[in-house]
Amino acid sequence: MNTDLMVNGQAQRLDADPRTTLLDALRNYLHLMGTKKGCDHGQCGACTVLVNGRRINSCLTLACMHDGDEIVTIEGIGGPDDLSALQQAFIAHDGFQCGYCTPGQICSATAMLDEIAAGWASHATKNVASLPGLTVEEISERMSGNLCRCSAYPNIIDAILEVAAGKEQS
């Protein structure tokens, strides 16, 4: 079955079995190895990518369901020679430790900052009638679908807070 995807700004035609998950399509057909297969059950967040600007667990969705969609993986957020602000902050704050969860963490944090900027409330939002404040509790709630076996959570939160502070100043 042919599926047309826009992956990291490039048109991709995928000829894969309709049962192929988006995660497996990215890794096995398009050879984008940054997106990780952790639990393969949607419980760890290692496979998080952005689809049309929203974060999803790519192990829980079929590639054919995203015909025509814009998909951004960690490779589309930034590469070794052109790191995003979040990638730089993760390095500065040692928010990656073993690094396995880092691509999903960064994709999720990228979308999370956009959600906050758009005024989307979370369970931790104190006042849903105003823009959510960027607190440790707010970040922890919003990033709760992304697990880190190394427990680098304080460093990840520090990295996100640094980038958010930079966005507020610009």
Question: Could you outline the blueprint of secondary structure elements for this entry?
Answer:
Blueprint: E1 2-7, E2 10-15, H1 22-29, E3 48-51, E4 54-57, E5 70-72, H2 74-77, H3 85-92, H4 102-117, H5 136-142, H6 153-169
Kindly describe this structure:
GO terms for molecular function: 2 iron, 2 sulfur cluster binding; metal ion binding; oxidoreductase activity, acting on the aldehyde or oxo group of donors. Keywords: 2Fe-2S, Iron, Iron-sulfur, Metal-binding, Oxidoreductase. This is 2Fe-2S ferredoxin-type domain-containing protein. The chain has 170 residues and is an alpha+beta fold. The chain has two domains: 2-77, Beta-grasp domain (Ubiquitin-like (UB roll)); 85-169, [2Fe-2S]-binding domain (DNA polymerase, domain 1, Orthogonal Bundle). It has six helices and five strands, in the order ββαβββααααα. Strands 2-1-5-3-4 form a five-stranded mixed β-sheet, with helices on both faces. α3 (85-92) packs across α6.
